[in-house]
Amino acid sequence: MKGDIDYAKLVKQFGTELIDAKLLARFEKHSGELHYLLKRGIYFSHRDMNFVFDEYDKGNPFYLYNGRGPSGHTHIGHLTQFIFTKWMQDKFQCPYYFQLTDDEKFLFNFDLDLEQARFYGRENALDLIATGFDPKKTHIIMDSYHARTIYPLAIQVAKRITFSTAKAVFGFTNSTNIGSIFFTSFQAVPAFLHSVRKGRNVPCVIPLAIDQDAHFRVARDVLPKLGFLKPGILHSRFLPGLQQGGKMSASDPESALYTVDEPKVIKKKLQNAFTGGRGNAAEQRKLGGQPEICSIFANYQLILIPQQDKLDALEKRCRSGDMLCGECKNICIELATKFLTEHQAKREKARDVFDEFLLKEEDITIE
Ligand code: TRP
């Protein structure tokens, strides 16, 4: 899972804090157990989570927010975010806002039209619902659809972000389209929307992949100026893809398992996946494999093997040279096929309840 990324440097550069044993103990105190993604350090860094727990301890519980840019189908990496967020919802009984940024993907991706982005938004939402979120506590926002609710709040944010800040944070240039420049103000809104709806400040926690932190560096500066709290953030690592050195990417179907993949696709992708194996069998028996660089092992860690003892046993067999990559890939194919087949059944059922999960907009009148 380490890849080439220097996480200590990231933490320093962006001024976040590592999730340490003390903070893990605070999770554990309330949840009774630690989620495997916390234990394994996949969520590794944070902002203001001690403040969030202080408030929680005082009887001011938080809500959850994150989202997904619908440029394609959901891959396993996105699913880990859903799985972790659902665990948080269960353990802390949180309301949860999930934002589908069809506008973002349309604006930033020249080849994608709005209908396609909305289509994928709906498809991605099925994966979210299939993960088991509570319909009473979960509110899905589709940006272009819920604009009536989001827009009046987004312009409050937008008014306090200069072009020079947006350029510095996101690298915009004079040829960037103006929709893209405005977009971050939309992503900021769900970080205080629940407070607006409740009429009081409710702390917010945003579990996200570290590359999304930029939006919230900006939002965290603006929100206090509007009278809202800065959201707490939980950062996850970049998730390695199935090829050497790459990360999972929504625009490259070969880079990861997708939730819609059929058994024969799963098999082919995993058979072609990059591993930590050696040049030949004899060498591997002697030296053992290298799970730390292996994409198959990453899939075990992230999603397919939550049970620590089971993962440890496989790791031991790999490192000792007892198990070679062929055998291990077959294990992975079996686990992935089972997992995804079950997920796909739930995903189809989710079509019937999609509407129940959409954020209900307040009646707005013009006075
Ligand atoms: N911009 C994100 C993406 O491209 C989607 C998103 C919207 C998001 N709101 C979020 C991600 C909050 C994490 C947290 O995928």
Characterise the protein shown here.
- It is a single chain.
- A 7-stranded mixed beta sheet has the order 1-2-7-6-3-4-5, sandwiched between helices.
- The protein contains 18 helices and 7 strands.
- Helix 8 (147-158) packs across helix 10, helix 13 (263-271) packs antiparallel against helix 17 and helix 15 runs parallel beside helix 17.
- The termini are far apart.
- It has helices at 7-14, 21-31, 36-39, 49-57, 76-92, 102-108, 114-130, 147-158, 163-170, 178-188, 190-198, 213-222, 263-271, 281-287, 295-304, 308-319, 325-350, 354-357; strands at residues 17-18, 43-47, 63-68, 96-100, 138-142, 204-209, 232-236.
- By secondary structure, it is an alpha/beta fold.
- Bound molecules: tryptophan.
SSE topology string: HEHHEHEHEHHEHHHHEHEHHHHHH
Query: What is the total tally of β strands?
Result: 7
Beta content comes to 5-15%
In the sheet with the most strands, the strands line up as 1-2-7-6-3-4-5
The averaged pLDDT comes out at: 96
Main β-sheet description = 7 strands, mixed
State the helicity in percent bands: 40-55%
Quickly count the helices: 18
- Overall geometric form: globular
Point out poorly predicted stretches.
none
Q: Kindly, what is the distance between the CA atoms of the first and last residues, rounded to a whole number of angstroms?
A: 55 Å
- Class by alpha and beta content: alpha/beta
Radius of gyration: 21 Å
